[in-house]
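User: Modeling request: complex.
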Amino acid sequence: MTRKRVQKAADELGYAASPSASRLATGRTRTVAVVVPLLSKWFFAEVIAAAGRVLSGEGYDVLLAEVSTPRLRSEFFASPRLHGRSDGALVVALQLTGEELAALESQGQSVALVGSERPGAASVQVQDRDGGRAAVRHLLNLGHERIAFLGIREAPGSPLGGVPPAERLLGYRDALLEAGAPSDPSLELGVENTVEDGAAGMASLLTRVQPPTAVFAASDELAFGALSALRHAGLEVPRDFSVVGYDNHELSGAVGLTTMDHGVAEQGRLAAEALIGALSGEPARTSRIEARLVVRGSTAPPRRLRAGAR
Amino acid sequence: MTRKRVQKAADELGYAASPSASRLATGRTRTVAVVVPLLSKWFFAEVIAAAGRVLSGEGYDVLLAEVSTPRLRSEFFASPRLHGRSDGALVVALQLTGEELAALESQGQSVALVGSERPGAASVQVQDRDGGRAAVRHLLNLGHERIAFLGIREAPGSPLGGVPPAERLLGYRDALLEAGAPSDPSLELGVENTVEDGAAGMASLLTRVQPPTAVFAASDELAFGALSALRHAGLEVPRDFSVVGYDNHELSGAVGLTTMDHGVAEQGRLAAEALIGALSGEPARTSRIEARLVVRGSTAPPRRLRAGAR
DNA sequence: CTGAAAGCGCTTACAG
DNA sequence: CTGAAAGCGCTTACAG
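Assistant: Request completed. Predicted assembly structure:
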């Protein structure tokens, strides 16, 4: 109460403590850096937005650090860029090496990771393998037998360093194995995580001598590309072909994409909370998120089955 | 050269000047705040990403400020939140009141605006009226006569405060007037800028006694919604209906949307440069960007004409 | 419990 | 031209 009134009086008088002075005196910045490989992708923006809300709710400033190329990445970790600027770093998607993590810690940063894991560091991760399995089971349950996997291969210029969604491929294989479905390496494809490459990848999968009747795409962006390629190939979804994505992208509803929701905003929130915990000296917290199937209009029984049913 | 070698030596020794100390001594933070109504929309993320690259290239830290509700907005401007934290603010889309601008300036901020204009402040704007006119002319040239406008109405909870894309509506009317096409207020609709509302708006436009054959949507998100509504209504685009969007959203290529490209990244870049200029005492710089038509697959002559042509 | 003083790590004006 | 000193505006340990 008193606190609030003082704050209000201060605001009215236009008084504000000098952050630089108090930072210098205390050695704490009450600032957190958010480190992402790319800002303009929906996933990262959504994580940052959610994390930022809890962070600023707790009185932290949030500093933006985009490391979009391997070059920027090595420069970022080689120089003490965060030293004295933030107390902690929330690192999204980048698979940190031991040295990179050590570099952050030597700059006095507490660290929270989203989408990767490191001994001793707080992190939040998605049960991607389970998610992949659930996606493919959905297709198997509909009666599909030839199911392709359209995965994310890292671009040469990507700073990610590690292939987080590799787990999604494992889940795909798990589901096939469980069902006793024959696994066919020619149906597994890895492309860059863009709509364009998703389309090209889908087009290529359609040229197999025995083409698939469904695809599990490791991201919604790839799935959007796949949908576009299928349309161009004259195939109608889901009548002629089924597609499952992964993300529950804000636009996946608009195109009626069946997908896996892995709680993107939730990832940001949990990571921010874990980081705040770490900043107050709490031992590293690890959270796991389960992905859940969202059925929309891009999946249906394969043509053969439905024809038979009539 | 020497400078570079000193930098390198410093990096190797792990030495880094204390930002707090130098900020306290100089009174300059070498930090810029980016103020956006929403982080997780593609447009804002893209503007921030582009601005952030030029800003950090010039050695500025970038601080994130999301003011996503009217409440947060008034709190943000009522308290000296940026005082001593940043030297300048890059304000995206928010239509600042005179007091809000004054509040920023009293906190020692240089200001650059994107998507709005204020006497004395640097800004970058899009020639939205021209852009709207060009979009509608494209439809008129194809032979459409009943062209609807699906515009952005501000949500009650929106912090934007002003309707920037109102210019797009004026451009729409200009084009109709030029062509001597009858203007019909029942074909002008304003909805919230979401895919869902775009779909609902399109559905509603289709119920007019004399329905349109084409729509100009004031954003690509609205256009995505429109495409989805048209599909649900059993209409095929562009055979039965034409759609033009506005943004050149990263996913508009995937759905084959004809749209207006207003150089979103360029807006961010120019604003950052204008802000850097303002920070070094240069007089307020104003840039204007022209939107340009990108023809994809969502527009074609109206059915009547094509049938007649055969 | 209150209040004056030292110190945080820089920058810069000034004395030598 | 070089180097010691004051000052930026806080926090905090300490003297009274």
